[in-house]
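Blinded run. Sample ID left blank on purpose so nobody reads anything into the name before looking at the predicted structure. Input follows.
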Amino acid sequence: MRIFHQPKFDFLSVKWYCITGSIVVTAIGMLSLVYKGGPNFGVDFTGGAQLIYGFSSQPDENQIRKVVETAQVKVDSVQRFDRADKNQVLLRVPMEKKEGRDLSKEVTAALTKAFFPQATAGAFDLNLNGTDALQAKLVADDPEKLAAKPNSDPKADYGRLAQSIIDARSRQGLFKTVDAAAKVPGVAPVTGAWLKEKTVAGPFTLLSAENVGPQVGKDLREKGAWAVILSWAAMLTYIGIRFRSASFGTAAVVALVHDTLFTLGLCSILNTEISLTVVAAFLTLIGYSVNDTVVVYDRIRENMQKSRRDPLTSVVNRSINETLSRTILTSGLTFLVCIALFFLGGEVLRGFSFVMMIGIIVGTYSSIFIAAPLVIVWEEWRAKKSAQNSPAAPAAKGKAPAKAR
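Blinded prediction complete.
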C-alpha cells in the first residue's frame, strides 16, 4: 500500500532549519530539567509509598492531606485518580531516612481515625482487610459450625467464601454497607447475620499500595540511566558494523540521543512522572526509532550502489521519498495503538503510552530530518577536511609557458 505515488519532496533543503529547531527545543527542555532540579521521578525511583484509596463518596483532597500530615506523615501529592465517578485518590508519600516504616499502615490508620471514628476498637473492617484476614476470622468464629460437621474442611470452605466476598468488593469498588457483603452469592443466612454483627464497612478502602525504600529507588535510578546509555552504545555498534560507516553509525546515535533528550525535555515541561513503565517506554522508543532509521539507511545504501555517479544529497533525498509511505503507515498505525492505550489503558499505562506517543512523532521526524541529513553533513565535512589536508598538485616542470599568438 502506497500513500504517495513517486513523491519528490526536497527534505534536505530544510535540514538546517530542522536541526536548529531540534537544538532549540531540546535546549529548552534541558533548561526545564535544570530549573526543576531534574525529572519528576515517581515513587519507583525516589522511594516512598504510592497509595490509591477508594471512597464511598466524593473525597476532599485538601482534607485528606491535612489528616495525613497531622499524623506526622509527609505527603508529596494528593490527587484524583481514574474517573471522577470512582471516587479514588492517589497519595504519594516520600520515604524518610528510617527504613522499614509501614507508610500504608500509618496513612490508613490516620484516615480511619478521621473518617470512621465511630468504629469500635478492633472492629473488623470489610473494606480494609483481605481474603486471608477474613478467612482467619471466619475460621475462628465458625458461624456455620463447620468444625462439627463430618467430612468438612472449615479452612478450605471459609477460604472460598472469603475469596467470593473480597472478589465482590473488588468489583463494586468497596462495600458501602455490610448488607452488600451479606448479599454476595454463596453467603449463607447465618454467615450474613454474623457479618452484620461482627464486621463493619468503612467509608474507604485501600486499592493499591506500592512501597519502595530509598536505597532501592536510588539503585533503580542508576540502572535506568545505564539502560538508556548502554542502549545508545549498542545501537552505535550495531549500525557501525552493519553499514561499515562511521558517518551512518554516529548520525544514528546522535538522532537517538536527540529523541531521548527531546522527549525527556517535553516530559519535564509537561511535568510527566518518570516511573519504571516510562523508562520502559524510553527503551521501546529507542528501538522503534533506530528501526525506522535503519530502513532509511538501507535504502540509501542500495541507491548508492545503483547510482554511484549521483551526488549523495540526491541519493539521500530519493531514499527518504521511497521509504516515506512505509514510514507514515508504520508510525501512524503504532500511534493509533498508543492513543488507544492512553485513553483506555488506565492510569498504570498512561505514562508509558504518553511517552510512546511523543516518541513516535519525534522518532519519525528524526529519521527523516535528523539522522539522514547528518550523514550528508558528516560526509561534506569529511570531504572538505580531506581537500584541505591534501597537498596541492605540483607545477609541471620543464615546460615553457605557452606564447600568446
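Unblinding after everyone has recorded impressions. The longest helix spans residues 346-389.
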